[in-house]
Amino acid sequence: MKIAIITDQHFGARKNSKLFHDYFLKFYNDVFFPYLEEHGITTIVDMGDTFDSRKGIDFSALAWAKDNYYDRLKDMGIHVHTIVGNHTAYYKNTNEVNAVDLLLREYDNVTVYSESTEVKLDKLNVLFIPWINKENEETTFKLIKGSVCKVAMGHLELNGFRAHRGCIMDHGHPGELYSEFTKVFSGHYHTRSDDGRIYYLGNPYEMFWNDVGDRRGFSIFDTETLEHFHVDNPYRLFYNIYYEDTPHQLFDVSEYVNKIIKVIVRKKTDTKAFEKFIDKVTDVAADIKIVENFDIQDPEEFEVFESEDTISILNRYIEEAEIQLDKSRVQNIMRQTYQEACELI
User: Residue 153 pairs with which residues in a beta bridge?
Assistant: First the structure.
């Protein structure tokens, strides 16, 4: 049996932005749902962070998720196995109170897992592992060690994997904890990364500037062969445009309608021609930012989101900054400085 795996959907993201939800919906309507229908997929594993904010939900975001996602899956007769992630657990030290359990009880086709559980998918036993915290860490590791399942699926924070472009995580649990499994699939990190046995499958769509250029989408897993493959999302939201005295008359802006644009100026010899170019892009773009030098951008332009932890904020700030430095080295220095500061408190 083939099942679909999707993770880190973050409904309600970016302060419940209509622009982002419209972008999400294009993926679901044009890619995700048609694939499920065409290939007769009846089971989905959602590996966590279904909703964006662990503290609450905007009513319009909840209505959007129900109208455009959960109601449709129910009508299609698809069962959804939903694993609690760190964004859907209200407290940081327990998964007991979580968004997916509280918000989705009306759906009899949705099963929520807030504790590690062995689940049979077709004829295959799979260990589901929700977000590991202080309360469940000991029991979770005991279950992992004693499990005879060949496959695990969860929302894991493991070191040595790519969190996003230019950032390899150097903290978290070691991957060796899962050495007895044939395959491990995980959410949490939004970009695809693997070591040949542990696979971070990545989220379905771009959400930040550091997502530009990464392949996004969902995955299909065969419970008989244990093979999997990705189904890519062809749609983008963030674009870099490099201006080099580019003639505005010849520049095609059709690709940039309702997109978030960063115009990076490499050569500008005619100010009026440049302004006409910017006007043409501005007329179609949802948002535009102009970078005319390589200084760190104005901090006032950088938006901090409630759902991000400090390290994620620092990493994203550095990634979005236009600087002529090795960003991974800068991120490592900032991470070490932050950890040392925490130890002094």
Answer: 128, 185
DSSP string, 240-302: EEEEES--TTT---GGGTT-EEEEEEEE-S-HHHHHHHHHHHHTT-SEEEEE-S-SPPPGGGP
Between CA 66 and CA 242 the distance in angstroms is 40
Least reliable range by pLDDT among 44-53, 93-102, 158-167, 189-198: 158-167
Q: Give the global pTM.
A: 0.85
Flag whether pLDDT at 344 surpasses 50: no
Residue 149 in tokens = 């399942």
Task: Please name the helix (run of DSSP H) or strand (run of DSSP E) that holds residue 64, with its range, or none.
Answer: helix 59-65
Q: Is residue 222 within 8 Å of residue 16, measured between CB atoms? A: no
pLDDT given for residue 336 in this prediction: 73
In tens, the pLDDT along 274-313 reads: 999 999 999 999 999 999 865 545 455 566 655 556 677 7
Region 147-176 average pLDDT: 91
How many other β-carbons are positioned within 10 Å of the β-carbon of residue 255?
Answer: 10
Q: CA geometry: angle at 5 spanning 107 and 56, to 5°? A: 50
Architecture of domain 2-232: 4-Layer Sandwich (3.60)
In this prediction, what percent of the chain has a pLDDT beyond 70?
91
Neighbours of 176 (CB within 10 A): 8
What does the alpha-carbon distance between residue 113 and residue 29 come to, in Å, rounded to a whole number?
Answer: 27
Q: Please, what's the largest Cα pairwise distance for the chain?
A: 69
What's the N-to-C CA distance of the chain in angstroms?
52
